[in-house]
Amino acid sequence: MVSSSLPWKQITNFAISTPHTAPIPVAQFVSCLRVLEKCTSAITFSFTQHCFGRDASYVAATPIVLPILEELHTTDPLIYNNLSLPALRIIKAGSKFRDASPDLLTALDGLITRSDCAESIRRIDFVGFPIRGLLLQILTRTRNLEQLSLKGLCDIDDQSKTEIGVITQFIGGMKVSEELPKLKLLHASDKNEVVRRTRVW
To answer: What number of other Cβ atoms are within 10 A of residue 24's Cβ?
Structure first.
């Protein structure tokens, strides 16, 4: 039950973090969405869940629209599946504590399409993602991207590759000047924050 006495409409920065031990049930997640729906002045929202395992397919009848939210940080595909963020500028996806959920890229791609925000996105931080065509597709859609951070990418088809080796190969396969013409900062590191390559374009 969401308390109507709290000043939800004036909150500009909202963060929720759940324990590492177990994923929250869908019913509790829906309660979180009901709170978030009231935060129409929110500029940043962070939902950090370090343990996955529940059904990631829940989608509300209509997405929650947060018209001025600019920054989203989450490890949970359910957040992406249930929001519309037309003013989104910064995406921080994944967690250094574990590899990203397999559903996260698909959900993120859906959020960008639903929100029609590809051109407004200026920064993306990816942590712990498998290399797949969808990852590259998301990046090539965000042509106004200025900052890109890649941490702990993995090649699930070749487990022998080091994190930084996968990142270097991924970057090398991109036509950066064509696909990300406005990119100014590229930060690559492993999940332990050991920086191996930083380049300013």
So the answer is: 18
